[in-house]
Amino acid sequence: MPDAAPNDQNLLAELTQLKQKADAATLPEDLKANIDQMLSRLQRMASLSTYSEEYDRTSHYIDWIVSLPWDKKSDDVMDLVKTKEVFEKHHFGMVDVKERFFEYVSVLKLKAGQEGTKGIVHAPVLLLVGLVGTGKTTFAYSLAEALGRKIVRIPFGGMSSARDLRGQSRLHLEAEPGYIIKSLRQAGVRNPVILLDEIDRVSDDTRGEIMGVLVELLDPEQNKAFTDYYIDYPFNLSEAIFIATANNTEKVATAVLDRLETITMPSYTDEEKIQIGKNYLLPQALVEAGLKPEQLMIEEALWPQIVRPLGYDAGIRTLQRTVKGIARKSAKQIVEGSLQQVVMNQSNIKEYLPTY
Question: E strands, 83-208, where?
């Protein structure tokens, strides 16, 4: 065969790299045989310099297949002492909610140790319901940290099609996998914590279709063979842990709710917010602003005004923005040289609080 043109050489190099990835991947036997056939067909195309859209689509599909964690998983920690440390580090108050997560991890630990489970535990799916800013998402991240699992987030806000979750057939131009398969590739393991965020905020027009996919995802008898339309091969999701969040349950299908254990997230009191602001949000804001703790001092009597500058807010997002704004303004004053240390008091508090 005559020497290939530079572009052909690049094509052959890419194909060689793809074949190496396929050889290194542990795939189900029938899928492996199918991928080998596809690679042989691509090899013929490349050797004949017959690059086409089919080549591009097929090589893209193979890359997705060999990049998925078919056999890769992380080992759970399941240490209740560590779990309590993680949740106490990230969450103030919320005693009942934290206690429910401690129970959750305890049950996982006991079931994982039972004979016949082979360490595989079908975890119940928790649904955290509460107003914006009450910590729903951060509880999911804390659970992942406590268990030593990867976590991936799938946003449902504004989701307009079930294809966003399940993907589209690769026969369509520019088709790609759905969020579920994408999240598994991102995590690199088949047993991550998958956060289904704001499942009540999907488009009204396609709510029924999306809820239908959710039923399949959350049902242990179905998710062990979840099929993305692009991948077109069942993937076992039974070892993943699903955590869902919602602002309310009015727009969540009954069939979905039947597969969830609901935890109601209470609103924070002003006193709880003061403690969160001082002990959690302020230290974080100082680090983000590049400030040392001694460079920003806030008089104790100011915290009620910082917590509630306008009116009552169930969550802490407004407080978080306010504290970060105080830190940024302080950093600017120190850099400008007008101050070496910022001391917030009753006479200057308005300089640092947002204007509504």
Answer: 126-129, 151-155, 193-197
Helix (H) or strand (E) holding 191: none
Where are the chain's structural domains? 6-67, 80-264, 270-352
Contacts of residue 112, defined as CB under 8 A and 6 or more positions apart, other chains included, come to: 76, 78, 119, 121
Domain covering 80-264, topology: Rossmann fold (3.40.50)
In this model, does residue 3 exceed pLDDT 50? no
- Among 81-85, 109-113, 224-228, the least confident range: 109-113
CATH number of 270-352: 1.10.8.60
pLDDT score at 123: 74
Count of CB atoms within 10 A of residue 312's CB? 8
155-211 tens-digit pLDDT: 999 898 999 999 999 888 789 999 999 999 999 999 999 999 999 999 888 999 999
Residue recorded with tokens 């974080």: 284
**In DSSP terms, which residues pair with 183 in a beta bridge?**
none
Model's pTM, two decimal places?
0.85
Q: How many residues does the chain have?
A: 356
